[in-house]
Amino acid sequence: MSESKPPGQAPEQTTDRLFATQRRPDDFRFDASVARVFPDMIRRSVPGYTTIIPMIEVITEQYVQAGSNCYDLGCSLGASTLAMRHGIPYQDCRLFGVDNSSAMIERCEHYIALDDNPLPVTLRCEDLLQTELSNASVTTLNFTLQFVAPEARAQLLARIAEATRPGGVLILSEKIHFESEQEQNIQTRLHHEFKRANGYSDLEISQKRTAIERVLIPESLAAHKERLLAAGFNDVVVWYQCFNFVSMLAIKSD
Fold first, then answer.
1. Is 99 a known ligand-binding residue?
2. Which candidate, 142, 147, 99, 92, places its Cα nearest to that of 120?
3. Residue 10 — very low, low, confident or very high, per pLDDT cuts 50/70/90?
4. Domain ranges, ordered by start, for the chain
5. Does the annotation place 127 within a ligand binding site?
6. Is 74 known as a binding-site position?
7. Which residues are listed for S-adenosyl-L-methionine binding in this entry (predicted)?
C-alpha cells in the first residue's frame, strides 16, 4: 500500500481544480491526481450521483441472495461497494470491488477499513474484462461501462449475465446520448448548467470535455437495453434519470 496515511484515517480529499488552468489536451486518466479529487469531481459532475449511491444499497437489499457473490466492477473509491455492503444482510455473501487503477484501489482500501460493517470486502486491482465472475446475485457497473471499449461491452455483459443467479440483477449507471439532436443539445446544455451551478468555470467544463470525450463513449438508452437483453437478462427497467445520466436495472428471471 503506497498511501502514507494509515488505514484508520481517511485519505485527504481536495477540491477538483484539475482543469482550472489551461493545459495540454491529454486523455482523461484515473491516476493519482484524479483519485485525490474524485469524491468532489463526481459529486459536482454527475447529476443524481448522491441519489444513486444510497439507492444501490436499497436495490442490493432487495435482490441479494444468501450464499452468493456480489461485485462492484469499476469500484473506484468504493462508494457503491460500501452501499452494497450495507445492503447485504447475509454474512455468507462475498463482496468484491474491482478496478484497474491502483491509485483508486489504494484509497478505496482506506474507506473500506473506516466502515464499521463487518462483511468482508475483497478488492482486486485488475482489468474487469478479465476478472473472475461466478455465483452472482447483484453486480454493479456504476458509470463504468462507458469507459470500456465499445467492441468489448457485449462480451462483458454476457459474462455478467452468465455468472448471475436466477433472480439476480445488474445495476448499470451510464451517461447516455440521445437519438434526437435537439434533445441531445438540450440535455447537454442542462448538464453544463449543472456543472456551472456547482462552481465549475467554462474553461474547466470545456477542458474536461475535451479530455474525456475519447475515453468516455456514451450510447443510447435503446442500445443499452437491446444489448442487455441479448446478453441474457430478461428485463431492463430505468429506475433513475437526470439529464443525460441514467441508471438501469437488468433482471435475470427466476
1. yes
2. 92
3. low
4. 49-177+215-251
5. yes
6. yes
7. 49, 74-76, 99-100, 127-128, 142, 209
The strand order across the sheet containing 94-99 reads 121-125, 94-99, 69-73, 136-142, 164-175, 245-251, 235-242
Answer yes or no: is 71 a known binding residue. Answer: no
Which of 78, 84, 91 lies closest to 139 in space, CA to CA? Answer: 84
pTM for this model (two decimals): 0.92
Please indicate if the annotation marks 209 as binding a ligand. Answer: yes
Cell of 131: 476478472
CB 129: neighbour CB atoms within 10 A?
Answer: 14
Q: How far apart are CA 163 and CA 139, in angstroms?
A: 10
Residue type, 75: C
- Cell 461466478 sits on residue: 134
Is 75 annotated as a binding-site member? yes
Sign of the CA dihedral running 167, 173, 179, 182 = positive
Overall size of the chain counted in residues: 254
DSSP 3-state assignment of 213? Answer: coil
**CATH: 2.60.120.330, 3.40.190.10, 1.10.472.10, 3.40.50.150. Which one for 49-177+215-251?**
3.40.50.150
State how far the Cα of 98 lies from the Cα of 24, in Å rounded to an integer: 30
Do residues 168 and 63 make contact, with C-beta atoms less than 8 angstroms apart? Answer: yes
Task: Using pLDDT thresholds of 50, 70 and 90, give the confidence band for residue 9.
Answer: low
Alpha helix positions (H), 124-220 = 150-163, 181-197, 202-212
Give tens-digit pLDDT for 201-238. 999 999 999 889 889 999 999 999 999 999 999 999 99
- Alpha carbon distance 187, 191 (integer Å): 6
Q: Do the annotations mark residue 49 as ligand-binding?
A: yes
- In the numeric block, the cell 455483459 is attached to 157
